[in-house]
Structure formats: C-alpha cells, structure tokens
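To assess whether the prediction recovers the assembly geometry, we first specified each molecular entity separately, as shown.
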Amino acid sequence: MLHYSKNLKPLQRRSGTLFGTWLILTMLTFAAAHLAFEHALFSKAVLRLIELLPAIPVAAMIFIVGRYLARETDEFVRILVTQSLLWGLGVTMIGDIVFGVVFEDFSTHGLSQIYNIDVFCITALAALFIQLRRNQ
Amino acid sequence: MKNRLRVLRAERGWSQADLATRLEVSRQSVNAIETGRFDPSLPLAFKLARLFDTTIESIFRDEI
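The predicted structure of the complete assembly is given in tokenized form:
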C-alpha cells in the first residue's frame, strides 16, 4: 500500500486524507452514539439527536468520493475506484442480509448498522488494492 | 479491441511511465490499454493518435 501512496496525485492524496479524517469521525460518532444509548446518558430526545450524528460524516464521505470521481482525469483509475466502491457496497449489503437472517433471533438487531461503514471501507480498500496489484 | 500501442511506444524508446506522463494518466492505465484490458475513451484515443502523429484506426483495430 505504501508503494501506491507514494505515487498519488495531489487530488488523490487530498481526497484520501479527507476521507480518512471523516471515516475516523464516523467511527467516533457511532461509538459515542452507541455508548450514550447503552448507558442512557441523556434524555430520549438528546439520544435521538446523538444517534443522528453519524449521518453527518457519512454524508461528508459520500461528498468527498463524489467530488474525487468528478475531478479524477484518469479514466482507468476512475473505473477501478468505482468498481472497488461497488465491491464495498455489495459486500456490505449482502453482509447485512446474512447478518440479519443469522442473528435476528438473538436480539442483536441494529448492531450490524454500526459496522456497515467499517465493512464497506475495508472491502472497498481491499478491492482497490487488489485491482491496483492486478494492473501493475 | 487490439492495438499497436506497445509497438509504437517501443519505436520511440518510451517506457510505459514516459507515455503515461505524456498522456497525463497513470502507468497502470497505459499497461491496461496495451494489454487490452481497458479500451480508452475517444478523447484519450485522440490524444494517443496526436501523440504518435497518426490516426486512431492505425492504433486500434476492432477484433470483429
């Protein structure tokens, strides 16, 4: 991965940094919402607001990826990134369905939602890494 | 789609990286086009034709 990070264009580097920053914020807001809900730290209305917080960094991440794809001049790289995002989306959605079927009886409903963004990002990054390796 | 990119590039003594720099794309893009895994868009095909001072048809050939 380090090899690829050295060859990044300024747009790719900037978008990657911004995406990573918002990804960390997504995880933090998810964790905060989870903790606040678990321990019932606030009133119900405040809890609802806290639960909505992760939507902000997720929206920012989508905006960053969209802007990157619109500005990426290398059409082949654009295709690789788009395919990787589709892999991420596909694995996350299928994972959700499987998780729902397997664990719904064990009253863990809603737990998979917390990990969606992690599964999506890890799968998309792995897919991108594999595609870049294949097209060395 | 088949193409003569590798031959044209070799005639000029350019590496994939050299061609990529001239086209303002990644080296992976050049490699993918050369190996037929990726067909470039018309703007990129025109850019290639201009760079090699030839026509698109003389670089790319339909396999049908």
